[in-house]
Write a structure and sequence with these properties.
Layout lengths: L15 E6 L4 E9 L5 E12 L2 E17 L4 E6 L12
Antiparallel strand pairs: 1-2, 1-5, 2-3, 3-4
């Protein structure tokens, strides 16, 4: 079995992070904990809702989730939400 390296979550502890999940869900919350398998605990978590007619479009609507455990198998990307910048898509 191939070893998977866990990102440096320690540097993100206490910061607001953005998590993209398998299936298109996206959430933000404050990283409060993690384990050796990559599961993370988010406090004050908010989910960004998608358009019911077009699942590729994020809406302005959100849903408060509170404290949430995110399993590592569902995580696609995690990044610091406060220091991230959006760049134009070079493929459009």
């Amino acid at each position: 079995m191939e070893k998977v390296q866990i990102p440096d979550y320690q540097s993100l502890m206490g910061k607001k992070i953005h998590v993209k999940l398998v299936g298109g869900r996206e959430s933000e919350g404050i990283l409060r904990g993690y384990d050796q398998t990559g599961n993370v605990i988010l406090d004050d978590c908010t989910e960004f809702l998608r358009d019911p007619r077009d699942a590729t479009v994020l809406t302005d609507k959100t849903r408060k989730l509170g404290t949430t455990v995110v399993r590592s198998q569902n995580v696609i990307t995690i990044y610091d939400a406060e220091s991230a910048i959006e760049i134009p898509n070079p493929f459009l």
